[in-house]
Every structure is written in structure tokens, then in C-alpha cells.
User: Which sequence fits this backbone?
């Protein structure tokens, strides 16, 4: 991992992978998270010759906290990092809580972003016609509920949960309540993604709860941009069995993004969907040159 000093005195932690001269893929991690490799995404990107860039949002790892940040605030940080790395344009991918941040980069850096892939991305909390918590696991319903009440209500919940997050084991993941991980998620973790989930959880609280807290508060606030500003091609990928961010979020986003295709994957969950990274990146690379003419569902 590396860091870059931002003009306002903050530090941003990031990691790089792949050829220095490859097309850039900007990856946005989930919540909690940080600058941790997502194995299926990074492996697929390497096969496609992409240069992968993943920055830890403020408050995660070595990235300086930025209280009261919004979703849109990711764009200026990313722009500084891209400039420093000599990157002119990029593709972007956001998993889970990274989804809104990927959309922010597409909306607010339109001359540079060539395409977006959303994997189990979170939809706006106040999305018209969206039942935000329908089908969502009880833990996430409670977390978003406290976030909607504000920082004072949310912080005690996260402080209480952080020690278990920091020391989570494969056995603890297996023992998670049945409404958190579907069968496909449990199989994916048993096949090797448990080590990734452990690393991302521990890194996500390694510097405290600031990153996690500020992500949650940003999700339930206005995102700071209109979805109509996303004019590049978008692929919305979601599993039907996702219990953490239910498939209704993906369908809602597909209905409200102008140049989107929705890829609903039967039987996939929140974690197992990462194993679709090869197909997702192939779509993203192929679509980047020509936005779809219509919004629709495939697969």
C-alpha cells in the first residue's frame, strides 16, 4: 500500500496492481473496508491487462478521516490521485458500499470516466419507490436505521461491533446468522473468499470506526449529484439471494440510470457475486466505447 498527500493536509491510502501502462480500473471498496485487494476483481483485471487502482476512503486504514463527508466527496480525492498517477481516463467498479462512490466518480468526472460496473451496489436511502430494507438482513436494517437517526445514535452500535469485526475468524463467518450470508456466499467463502472477508473486516476498523461511520451517514444523506449526470455506460450486477444489499437495490438503480443494463444473477449473493468479475470486466471493457441505446435487463 502507498499513500499520497492531498492539498488540504489529508493523506489518502491506496494500492496499485497490474501494468503501469494498462487502461485504468478504479475500484471502490465496500463498507467497512479500505485499501485491500479484492482477489476475484484483481485477478480478472490482471487477465485483461488493466491497471487496478483502489483507494481507501477517509477514515479507513491510513486515510485521514474526513467527518461529514458525502458520497460526492470521493470525486475530488480520486481526481488528485489519478492526476498524480498520470491517468487521463478510467473505468470504475464499485462493490456494495463502493457502488454509490463509483457512480459519483462517473457523474462528477464525466470527461474521464468511460464506464461503470456496480456489484451489489447500494441504492439511495430515499429512492422514490424503493423499499430500502425489504429483504435485508436484520443487522443491516438496524445499522441503517441508526445511521438515519444521526451520528450520536450510530456510533455506539459501531463501537460495540468493531472488536468482533477486528478479530473475525472463518469460524465466526460460518456461524453468522442465516439472514446475513446466503448459501452461495457461504460456499464462496469456503472456497477461499473467507480470507478476503477477514482481511477487509479487520482493515476496515484498524483505525477505529470513522470510515465505517462516515460511509453509513453518507448513504442515508443526499448523495450530492443526480443520477441523470451519469452518462457513460453502466452495468448493474446483482444476485437474487443477496441478503446484505437486496436485489431490489440493483433493479431500482437500473430503472433510474439512463445508460444501464441490469444483470440479475439467480442464486448469487453478496460475496459470491465477486466470482462473476471476469464477465463483469469483459462487459465493462466492451461497453466503454459505446453506451447502450436503451435501459434493459439481461441475464
Assistant:
Amino acid at each position: 500500500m502507498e499513500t499520497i498527500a492531498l492539498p488540504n493536509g489529508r493523506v489518502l491510502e491506496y494500492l496499485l496492481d497490474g501494468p503501469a501502462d494498462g487502461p485504468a480500473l478504479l475500484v471502490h471498496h465496500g463498507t467497512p473496508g479500505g485499501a485491500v485487494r479484492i482477489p476475484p476483481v484483481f485477478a480478472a483485471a490482471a487477465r485483461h491487462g488493466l491497471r487496478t487502482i483502489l483507494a481507501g476512503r477517509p477514515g479507513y486504514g491510513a486515510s485521514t478521516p474526513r467527518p461529514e463527508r458525502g458520497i460526492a466527496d470521493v470525486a475530488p480525492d480520486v481526481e488528485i490521485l489519478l492526476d498524480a498517477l498520470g491517468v487521463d481516463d478510467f473505468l470504475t467498479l464499485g462493490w456494495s458500499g463502493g457502488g454509490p462512490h463509483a457512480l459519483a466518480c462517473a457523474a462528477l468526472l464525466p470527461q474521464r470516466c468511460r464506464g461503470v460496473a456496480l456489484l451489489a451496489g447500494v441504492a439511495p436511502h430515499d429512492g422514490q419507490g424503493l423499499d430500502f430494507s425489504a429483504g435485508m438482513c436484520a443487522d443491516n436494517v438496524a445499522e441503517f436505521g441508526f445511521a438515519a437517526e444521526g451520528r450520536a445514535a450510530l456510533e455506539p452500535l459501531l463501537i460495540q461491533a468493531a472488536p468482533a469485526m477486528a478479530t473475525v475468524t472463518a469460524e465466526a463467518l460460518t456461524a453468522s446468522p442465516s439472514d446475513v450470508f446466503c448459501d452461495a456466499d457461504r460456499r464462496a467463502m469456503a472456497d477461499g473468499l473467507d480470507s478476503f472477508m477477514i482481511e477487509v473486516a479487520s482493515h476496515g476498523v484498524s483505525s477505529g470506526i470513522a470510515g465505517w461511520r462516515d460511509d453509513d451517514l453518507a448513504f442515508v444523506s443526499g448523495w450530492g449529484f443526480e443520477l441523470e449526470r451519469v452518462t457513460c455506460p453502466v452495468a448493474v450486477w446483482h444476485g437474487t439471494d443477496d441478503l446484505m444489499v437486496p436485489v431490489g437495490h440493483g433493479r431500482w438503480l437500473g430503472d433510474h440510470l439512463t445508460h444501464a443494463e441490469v444483470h440479475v444473477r439467480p442464486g448469487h449473493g453478496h460475496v459470491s457475486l465477486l466470482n462473476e468479475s471476469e464477465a463483469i470486466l469483459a462487459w465493462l471493457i466492451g461497453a466503454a466505447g459505446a453506451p447502450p441505446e436503451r435501459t434493459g435487463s439481461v441475464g
About this structure: Residues 290-299 have pLDDT under 50 and may be disordered. The longest strand covers residues 11-17.
